[in-house]
From TrEMBL:
<feature type="transmembrane region" description="Helical">
    <location>
        <begin position="166"/>
        <end position="186"/>
    </location>
</feature>
<feature type="transmembrane region" description="Helical">
    <location>
        <begin position="47"/>
        <end position="71"/>
    </location>
</feature>
<comment type="similarity">
    <text>Belongs to the MIP/aquaporin (TC 1.A.8) family.</text>
</comment>
<dbReference type="InterPro" id="IPR023271">
    <property type="entry name" value="Aquaporin-like"/>
</dbReference>
<keyword id="KW-0812">Transmembrane</keyword>
<feature type="transmembrane region" description="Helical">
    <location>
        <begin position="134"/>
        <end position="154"/>
    </location>
</feature>
<keyword id="KW-1133">Transmembrane helix</keyword>
<dbReference type="InterPro" id="IPR034294">
    <property type="entry name" value="Aquaporin_transptr"/>
</dbReference>
<feature type="transmembrane region" description="Helical">
    <location>
        <begin position="21"/>
        <end position="41"/>
    </location>
</feature>
<protein>
    <submittedName>
        <fullName>CLUMA_CG014415, isoform A</fullName>
    </submittedName>
</protein>
<dbReference type="Pfam" id="PF00230">
    <property type="entry name" value="MIP"/>
</dbReference>
<keyword id="KW-0472">Membrane</keyword>
<dbReference type="GO" id="GO:0015267">
    <property type="term" value="F:channel activity"/>
</dbReference>
<dbReference type="GO" id="GO:0005886">
    <property type="term" value="C:plasma membrane"/>
</dbReference>
<feature type="transmembrane region" description="Helical">
    <location>
        <begin position="92"/>
        <end position="114"/>
    </location>
</feature>
<keyword id="KW-0813">Transport</keyword>
<dbReference type="InterPro" id="IPR000425">
    <property type="entry name" value="MIP"/>
</dbReference>
């Protein structure tokens, strides 16, 4: 039983699901860091542009790799799911390693493509750091950023709320944008340890770095436990589940009537 919690069995999976997921996490956060940090280098202080860039990047990644790895692309999300028993220890470790490597690769690629970095802060490239606040205050901001992000992730991916899954990528992306709009002037609104690790590694600036790991991860774990213990949706009764399936099948049939070519896409 323990090996399934630890996840050793996943290393022997012949379908290579773990390795596909690890690659998906790498690609997802690579794109997040590349495009979002690129937006930071040309924002000229426009916080809305930065907020939208990060939110849209997460939205795009969730739509693209969500079905493969769950699109964590954030050690705080991975830690929350691990604390709630949703993923194995082995998968969690490989995800975090992949996320950090993807973040470094994304920021390094951006730096290689631009000769002059006019971005925010002394290092540009969207590196996060505390601005006119103490480390304790920064920890508090990042704690609540990780908390609200993971709380939303659990809420929209709850298996007993199947309808909310259609909105999951948008809801999570908007939560990231909200976090940036609210706190970007204080901590840079990281809410993602790997994202900050990527810019710190490339720029060589590690000041207050612990804040960006401890804050979001502890906030994410707290949110995960709170949701599982208090807020989780009640289990769907069998007759309700059957009713939901019937409605879903009806919707699919109606869709095929309007767009008959869809059936050929399905068959492929």
């Amino acid at each position: 039983m323990a090996k399934y919690t630890i996840g050793i069995n996943e290393l022997k999976d012949k379908s290579h699901n773990l390795w596909k997921s690890v690659l998906a996490e790498f690609i997802g956060i690579f794109i997040l860091c590349f495009f979002s940090c690129a937006a930071c280098t040309q924002s000229n202080g426009d916080l809305t542009l930065i907020s939208l860039a990060f939110g849209l990047s997460v939205f795009m990644a969730a739509c693209t790799i969500g079905h493969i790895s769950g699109c964590h692309i954030n050690p705080a999300v991975t830690a929350g799911l691990l604390a709630a028993g949703k993923i194995s220890v082995v998968r969690g470790i490989f995800y975090v390693i992949s996320q950090c490597a993807g973040a470094v690769a994304g920021v390094a690629s951006l730096k290689a493509l631009i000769s002059d970095v006019p971005g925010d802060g002394p290092a540009g490239l969207g590196h996060t750091n505390l601005k006119n606040i103490s480390e304790f205050q920064g920890f508090g901001f990042e704690f609540f950023l990780g908390f609200i992000l993971v709380l939303v992730v659990f809420g929209v991916t709850d298996e007993n709320k199947p309808d909310s899954r259609f909105l999951a990528p948008l809801a999570i992306g908007l939560t990231v944008s909200l976090g940036h709009l609210g706190t970007v002037t204080y901590t840079g609104s990281s809410m993602n340890p790997a994202r900050t690790f990527g810019t710190a590694f490339v720029t060589g600036i590690w000041e207050n770095h612990w804040v960006y790991w401890a804050g979001p991860i502890l906030g994410g774990v707290a949110a995960a436990l709170l949701y599982v213990l208090c807020f989780a949706a009640p289990e769907i009764e069998s007759h309700d589940l059957e009713k939901y399936r019937q409605v879903q099948q009806t919707d699919e049939k109606e869709g095929l009537k309007k767009y008959p070519d869809l059936k050929y896409i399905d068959e492929e």
